[in-house]
Automatic annotation (TrEMBL):
It comes from the Bacteria. It is a multi-pass membrane protein. Gene3D superfamilies: STAS domain. This is SulP family inorganic anion transporter. PROSITE patterns: STAS. Signal peptide: none annotated. Residues 457-557 form the STAS domain. It comes from Dongia rigui. It is found in: Membrane. The keyword Acetylation does not apply.
Length: 566
C-alpha cells in the first residue's frame, strides 16, 4: 500500500538557499542574480525611505530594515525569490505605534513580533494562513491602499497642518480640508511629475528603474530651481552613511505587556503579507515555497531589524515580482539586493538630503494605486452578495477602525457564511424499505417497474453532507417531522464524511426516542471516525447495532423484528 511521505523537520526548515546551492549554482546563475539584485535595490532604495517617512520614522530606518531584514529573509527563507523589506501594509500600524509608544516602543514591538513569528513557524502554523478567504485579502489590501493614499495627501499638496496630523481617517479629512489654504504649488508639481514619470516609464520603458529616475528628476529639479519644498534634509537632517551598532530597546515586564497587542498585530500582518508574496512568486515561477521555514526567517529578520533600529520587515509582493521578472535564479539575488542597498547608503547618503518629500509621496501614491486590486474588487462585488458583504465589511472596517479588526471581521463573516452554506447542503431523506429488491430490469427494454409495496416496519433515514453544528437544527427538525412509528429504524451514514459532537448529540436524542418506543436501531455505513464520535455520545450497543452497508442493515433489522415476533 502506498503511503504519503511526511517531510521531516530538516526538510521543512531547510532554507531555499541551501536547496539552490545543492542543485548546482553556476557562474551564469550568479551573473543573473547580480543583475536582478541590482534592479530590485534600485526599486527598493526610494521605496524603503518613502515607507519609513510615511510610517512616522526617519528614512534611514527604512534602509536599515531593507538591508538587515532583507538579507536574512533571502538567506534563511523558504522561498527562492522572496525580497524582504519595509512594506506599505505596515504604514498605518507602525505610525499608530510610534504616535502612542514612541520609537523605543516600536522597536520592542518589532522584536516581540519576530519572536512570535519564529514560534509560529517552528510550531508549523504557517499553513493555516492559507485559510484566509480571498474577499478578506482583497478587502484589507484595498483598505490599506486608501489609508496609505490618505496619509500622503499632506505631502502631495505641500499642506501645513495646525498641530500633529491625525491618524484616524475620520479625523484626518477635516484637518486636511482646514489646511487647504496652505496648498504648495511647487510641492504638488513635483509630486505630479514623479507620478507621471513612474507611470510613463512603467508603460513605455518597463525595464528602466522608474522609481529611482522619477525621484532623482524631482530632486534635481527642486535643487536647481530652488523650489520652496520640504526635503529629507530639511525635515530629518539627512541620513547616516553607516549601519548603527546592534542594541536592544529598553525592556521591562510592564513594557512587554504594553507592547504585546502591537507585536501580535505586526506578527499577524507580517505572516499574511509574506506568505501571500511567496504564493505570488510561486505562481510566477512554478516553484513551491516552504511556508513555515519562511515564517522562521521572517521572525529572525524582525528580531535583527529591531536590533539595528529598523521597523517591521516582511516579504514584499512588488519587489519580489520585480526580482522574478529581472531573471533571478535564487535567494542570492535577494542577498545581493541588501548588499547593493548598503553600498548605496555608504556612498550616496548625502544626496538623500535633497529628495523632496513630495516626490516620496508621489511614489507611495502610485504604490497605493497598484495595491488596490481594482479589477478583483469589482469582480467580487458582482460575484455574489455573500462575497460582496465580506469584501465591503473588511474594506470599511479596515479604513475606519484598523487593519486587524478588518481582517477579523471579514474572516468571521466568511466563516459564518460558509457554515450557513454547508448547513444548507446537508439533507435528510426518510422512506420505507421496498418489499422487493430493484437489482434487475423487469423487461427486455431494460426499464424498471415501480414497486408500490413497501415494508412499513422499517424506516430508513439517509443523511448526506457534512453533518456539523450548523446543520444540527435542520436535521433535528426533519427527524421531528417523522410521523410513523416503525418497528426498526436504519440511519444511513454512507454520504456523511464529517460528524461533530453537536450532530452526534442530535442523532443520540432521535435514536433514544425511537428506542424508548421499542424500535430496533441499526447504524449503516458509518466510517471509523463517525462511529467513534457516535459511540462517545452513547450511540452504541445494546441500543444500536452497526452494519457495513444499507442492505446489511435491512437484513439486520428484519432479523431483529423476526426475533421479536418469535
Amino acid at each position: 500500500m502506498n503511503t504519503v511521505h511526511q517531510p521531516s523537520f530538516v526538510e521543512l526548515f531547510t532554507p531555499k538557499l541551501v536547496t539552490v546551492l545543492r542543485e548546482g549554482y553556476r557562474a551564469a546563475d550568479f551573473r543573473a542574480d547580480v543583475i536582478a539584485g541590482l534592479t530590485v535595490a534600485i526599486v527598493a532604495l526610494p521605496l524603503s525611505m518613502a515607507i519609513a517617512v510615511a510610517s512616522g520614522v526617519t528614512p534611514d530606518r527604512g534602509l536599515y530594515t531593507a538591508i538587515v531584514g532583507g538579507f536574512i529573509i533571502s538567506a534563511m527563507g523558504g522561498s527562492r525569490f522572496q525580497i524582504g523589506g519595509p512594506a506599505g501594509a505596515f504604514i498605518v500600524l507602525v505610525a499608530a505605534t510610534v504616535t502612542v509608544h514612541g520609537v523605543d516602543g516600536l522597536l520592542l514591538a518589532v522584536l516581540m513580533s519576530g519572536i512570535i513569528l519564529l514560534a509560529v513557524g517552528l510550531l508549523r502554523l504557517g499553513t493555516f494562513v492559507k485559510y484566509i478567504p480571498y474577499p478578506v485579502t482583497i478587502g484589507f489590501t484595498a483598505g490599506i491602499a486608501v489609508i496609505i493614499f490618505a496619509s500622503q495627501v499632506k505631502d502631495l499638496f505641500g499642506l501645513t497642518l495646525q498641530g500633529k496630523e491625525p491618524g484616524e481617517l475620520i479625523e484626518k479629512v477635516p484637518a486636511l480640508i482646514a489646511a487647504a489654504p496652505s496648498f504648495n504649488v511647487a510641492a504638488f508639481a513635483l509630486a505630479l511629475l514623479t507620478i507621471i514619470l513612474i507611470v510613463g516609464l512603467r508603460r513605455y520603458r518597463p525595464n528602466w528603474p522608474g522609481l529611482l529616475i522619477a525621484v532623482g528628476a524631482a530632486s534635481v529639479g527642486a535643487a536647481l530651481l530652488g523650489l520652496p519644498v520640504e526635503t529629507i534634509g530639511t525635515r530629518f537632517g539627512g541620513i547616516p552613511s553607516t549601519l548603527p551598532l546592534p542594541a536592544l530597546p529598553p525592556i521591562s515586564y510592564d513594557r512587554i505587556v504594553e507592547m504585546l497587542p502591537a507585536a501580535l498585530s505586526f506578527a499577524l500582518l507580517g505572516s499574511i503579507e509574506s506568505l501571500l508574496s511567496a504564493v505570488v512568486a510561486d505562481s510566477m515561477t512554478g516553484r513551491r515555497h516552504r511556508s513555515n521555514c519562511e515564517l522562521v526567517a521572517q521572525g529572525v529578520a524582525n528580531i535583527a531589524s529591531a536590533l539595528f533600529g529598523g521597523i517591521c520587515v516582511t516579504g514584499t509582493i512588488a519587489r519580489t515580482a520585480t526580482n522574478v521578472r529581472a531573471g533571478a535564479r535564487g535567494p542570492i539575488s535577494g542577498m545581493l539586493h541588501a548588499g547593493f542597498l548598503l553600498v548605496f547608503m555608504l556612498v550616496a547618503a548625502p544626496l538623500a538630503s535633497f529628495i523632496p518629500l513630495a516626490a516620496l509621496a508621489g511614489v507611495l501614491a502610485t504604490v497605493a494605486w497598484n495595491m488596490a486590486e481594482k479589477h478583483a474588487f469589482a469582480a467580487l462585488l458582482k460575484a455574489s452578495r455573500a462575497d460582496a458583504l465580506v469584501l465591503m465589511s473588511t474594506f470599511l472596517v479596515t479604513i475606519f477602525s484598523d487593519l486587524i479588526n478588518g481582517i477579523l471581521t471579514g474572516f468571521c463573516l466568511s466563516a459564518l457564511l460558509m457554515l450557513h452554506r454547508m448547513s444548507q447542503a446537508v439533507a435528510v431523506e426518510t422512506h420505507s424499505r421496498p418489499l422487493f429488491a430493484e437489482d434487475q430490469a423487469d423487461d427486455a427494454s431494460g426499464t424498471r417497474e415501480r414497486y408500490e409495496g413497501l415494508d412499513r416496519d422499517i424506516l430508513i433515514c439517509r443523511i448526506s453532507g457534512a453533518f456539523f453544528f450548523g446543520a444540527a437544527a435542520s436535521v433535528g427538525a426533519a427527524f421531528d417531522r417523522i410521523g410513523a412509528q416503525p418497528k426498526a429504524v436504519i440511519v444511513d451514514f454512507a454520504a456523511v464524511p464529517i460528524l461533530d459532537s453537536t450532530a452526534a448529540a442530535t442523532i443520540e436524542a432521535f435514536l433514544k426516542k425511537a428506542h424508548k418506543r421499542g424500535a430496533h436501531i441499526v447504524i449503516s455505513a458509518a466510517d471509523a471516525s463517525v462511529r467513534h464520535t457516535l459511540k462517545s455520545f452513547g450511540v452504541k450497543r445494546p441500543m444500536v447495532r452497526f452494519a457495513a452497508d444499507r442492505d446489511a442493515a435491512v437484513e439486520t433489522a428484519r432479523a431483529a423484528i423476526a426475533e421479536e415476533k418469535a
